Write the structure tokens for this entry.
Amino acid sequence: MKKSISIFGGFLEPTQDQAQKMFELGKFLSSFSDTEYYIGGLGGCTKHVIRGISNSTVSIIVVGSTQGKESGFVVRESDNIKAVYQDGYFGKKQELFKSTVGAFLILPDSGTSLGTLTEIVEAIDHIKSFDVLVSQRPRPIVFYGECWRKFVDEVLSSRMDDITRSYVHFIGEKEYTKIATLLELC
């Protein structure tokens, strides 16, 4: 059975150094052939992770909205990149957070992405108010790098219980073994 991971990240272009780190992360993620990655957009850090993954047989599902597709935001599909279009913002979110997704990987934000911010809040809320309430094992949230730590510590931490906190992880760049373990890829 394939594992599913949702990846979130800002849409602004990262620095050249950060783009290279994201590409290397993608190459690492591509080594897990039994995994499919759900991605909510094709810009910023996410674009470079996709570039690293796309040279493999790993499945990438880009989740867009029908409104975006009608406005010209169309994904160029290939052997391992597929597009799924949902109706509106909430349909897109529903696809990215569906119960078959086993974990969430949060990439650094190179700007002021409100989309990623809402995805972080929703992922944390899923642990606190959905996964636990329906007796589903909570899904890990893995933050790549330190970009979001201050926000989580200062704004969200006081709203998290101990169970939720135990599923929120911050890892350093290039800690690939730890990424694989926390995302339950191996």
Observations:
- The radius of gyration is 15 Å.
- The beta strands are 3-8, 35-39, 59-65, 81-86, 103-106, 141-144, 168-171.
